[in-house]
Amino acid sequence: ITERDAMNLFKPATGPYKQTLRDMSICKMVLACIGGDLSTMEQIIDNLTTWPDFDILLSRLFARLLWMSLGAFALARARRDDDKSKYLFPVSRKGYLETGEKYLNFFQDHTAKGNPNAKMAYLCLKAESKQSDKNYKRAIDVCGNFGFLHLEAMMNEHLGLYTLSKKCPGNELKTTLYTM
After folding, report:
1. Do 38 and 180 meet the contact criterion of CB atoms below 8 Å apart?
2. Which helix (H) or strand (E) holds 7?
3. Collapsed DSSP state (helix, strand, coil) of residue 30
4. Entry pTM
5. pLDDT tens digits, residue range 74-104?
């Protein structure tokens, strides 16, 4: 059975299949973000945006919103223009930025309320939305302190790509490296 066949088993919009598809989509989004698979990010964001910004399990909500936002910021950076006809889904660069910013604000609110996991997510999203050495280094430190090794590694990689892009202005190096 192929992955596509397995995912088609979970297409019904009712019952446990809907929740299973959501949970599988979150896992797939993590892998897409780590691997820089923009087309998968696009598909998964389209699937996950149908869910409300509420979940009984706060950890599942945080995971979904964090990885969706990271994917949204990656897609916004990859889209140099707003010609939606070139892409799988008709979402503009601005649309992805709005998604990322919406959840950045969500995590900022939870950070202000003292949630340490929200702080880690907020700093990672802040680094992705407002790229700077300082923002990335703060995100890397917090991820390391709280044991989020995959995010720490991803933030280190994104800091490296950001640094390279500053040294090669006007070059498409950053997007090229990110999508390899």
Report:
1. no
2. helix 3-8
3. helix
4. 0.81
5. 998 887 655 555 555 556 778 888 999 999 9
